[in-house]
Amino acid sequence: MKITRRAFLQGSGAVVAAGLLSAMGGTDREETAMSPPAGLSGEEAWETIRGHFDLDPQYIHLSTLLLASNPSQVREAIARYRQLLDANPALTVEEKRLELEHGVRRTAAAYLGVDFAGVALTDSTTMGLGLVYNGLQVRAEQELLTTDQDYYSTHQALRYKRRDSGATLREIPLFEKASSVSEEEIVETLIKAVRPETRLLALTWVHSKTGLKLPVRPLADELRRINAGRDEQDKVLLGIDGVHGLGVENFVMEDLGCDFFMAGAHKWLFGPRGTGIVWGKPGIRSMVNTLIPTFTPDGTWGGRMTPGGFKPFEHQWALAEAFEFHRQIGKAHIAERTHALSRQCKEGLAKMRHVTLHTPMAEALSSGIVCFDVDGHTPQQVVDRLGERGIVASVTPYSPSHARLTPSIINTPAEIDATLAAIREMG
Length: 427
What we know:
Blueprint lengths: L4 H6 L3 H9 L19 H9 L9 E2 L10 H16 L1 H24 L6 E4 L2 H11 L7 E5 L4 H14 L2 E5 L10 H11 L4 E7 L11 H12 L9 E5 L11 H4 L3 E5 L11 E5 L20 H5 L7 H17 L1 H20 L4 E3 L12 E5 L4 H10 L2 E2 L1 E2 L7 E3 L7 H12 L3
């Protein structure tokens, strides 16, 4: 018997989606034993998943990297917790807060393949960067190192740390041209920049400026060799802004090899607005001092690093459902789909003579962000022209700026084709 779209949406949602996508091939770290319902596969399966989002069908939504729509199970969780808080706010916070907060941290830890004690909850990537970089124990004679390609929040957090610690802050150029740089060049550039006084290397996994994805693991391996000859307080620590990889790439933290990972959850993970995570590696966590008092006295680093205060608890608690939504579909399936749509977008743009593609074509050096320019148009004009066709794109907030598309699992190949056709007409 066929399962209709209506029946799917009224049923167990993403749980069924896991079975649907298992028929598409590929593997994931969390295998599901479910078998696919008859009659649904390929684009039909992705269409059922799209049905969990209340997106305006009049638009093609290609700006997931800014702020994402929430799937049904996240919206339902927010509504459920809000109802509890509205009915009895004091008792709900008193009796349920720690249990639900720990549940979110455990779900995040399982998704990342790490221990619960190392996961903290924040409001955003920016908050996570501020907490870790400004809490890090750094001496005045040491150095903070970053690149000219990293995000404002990384640069500003490091400036605050320089101001308060007296340490040196150095910002280096990472490449001449993002679209043609290689993994080896990136690693060589960064390793050559490391000095005996370098204490922190603060980087971004996937750049919102060009769409470049850094080869974090090879870099971490090289840093490990450097650190082998250093005392604990002089080792180079690797901090990663991972917001544009979380919810896209099929990874666990061991795959990256970094020391700290900070990411908002309201972008590619489709989590509640105002949520994020921080993770710290065992043995390194004690090198970060707490900046904001916590309300989570559970004796763990993650509890200590979770800022206290009263907040929109219904959003924080519902974050567990966003991780579960991705787990049920399968991280491998999500990564494959996002990369396929991104590749379709890049290949189409690369064929247009009036377009300059800035994002590397290689999937090892790119993720879900695609940045480009159109001859004779400013980036804002490109975005405006697309907007006239009901296509929501964005402009990179940098100098120089570019037009930017961010395909995700809410999109279809047909939508990418329509977007490429609209850009083709600008030539």
